[in-house]
Amino acid sequence: MLKKIVFILSIVSVIVACSSSDDSNGGSNDNFDRTALLTNYADNIIVPALVNFQSKMADMDTAKSDFINDINQTNLNILSDAWLEAYKAWQHVEIFNIGIAETLSADENSGFVVFFNRYPVTVIDIEAGAASGNYDLNAISYYDAQGFPALDFLIHGVADSDTTPLDKFTTNPNFEGYANYITDVIAQMRTIINTVVSDWQGSYRDSFINNTSSSATGSFNKMVNDFIYYYEKGLRANKIGIPAGNFSVDPLPEKVEAYYKNDVSKELALLGLETIEKVFNGQAIVGSGASSQSFASYLDYLENSQLKDDINAQFLAARQQIQSLNNSFSQQVMEDNTQMTQAYDLLQGAVVLLKVDMASAFNVSIDFTDSDGD
Description:
Layout: H1 2-21, H2 34-69, H3 73-90, H4 123-132, H5 147-156, H6 175-210, H7 219-244, H8 265-281, H9 295-301, H10 305-323, H11 329-348, H12 351-361
Helix pairs in contact: 2-3, 2-6, 3-5, 4-6, 5-6, 7-8, 7-11, 7-12, 8-10, 9-10, 10-11
């Protein structure tokens, strides 16, 4: 009986010891400097990318004003160029759905993304809004009728009964409505990004880097989850898998990013993958070129360098395949969809490495679910 009591007490002691060993890292009892990692992400990666995007949005707004004040094809072309530069900068920030950004919409998984890049765009809502002047860009029903996809249609698409994109703003009966709509969409986008940048440049930056917990509310946990969510959904599924037909009976070439411009979908996908690679390895996306603590260096610290190498190798293989595709993913899907599905498969190869192996190594629980069998 005495031995049984001693054994039970020993088990209790182990349980208590394990519980007491959990530190502010929310269950992670290693000594890796998560504060340094989060500081690198905040100061060298996230804030510079957001500020750069904010600047590109301001440039696009200026180009829009010049176009509205003097509507002609030259100014529309300049607006198109500014739209593309801003869209490219967006590829570097969509991943950072954290802080106030995740609270700005009714979609808890997408957060601020719904105001910038939900596609394909619902053209019928834009046309109805231009005709009636009755629309609410904050309403859930208008999440898919704004942002870059809406601007893509407004700048590059041809409306019913029109011959050219410019006709929407000149000879179309609702030309004033289209001018108001494009103005309101860009104003909404600028308001959102200004709010996000102000949040980071205010008190949020410090609270972000000091919250190293692996719990659901910890900055580290949120960074890991947002990273994996964007990779799996924003990049792998939305940019490649859905148009290629991986989630449907047939390919869907009309569901590519930037459908109306139609020759930049590869460029945008490569920029999205570049963001993934640089965040994983702790490298600045824009600006200084600084590099410091990251998910990759954390895996090195945990003596899991092989996993780090496997992840980077999978990113490289996917990049090489995407680079071989047509500049227009719509054309690629219609002409040789096998190449698109191969790109998807290579991106898919990193999902388990990130979502299972890396998350487990970091003692982070995945806080989102999916229905595509991963």
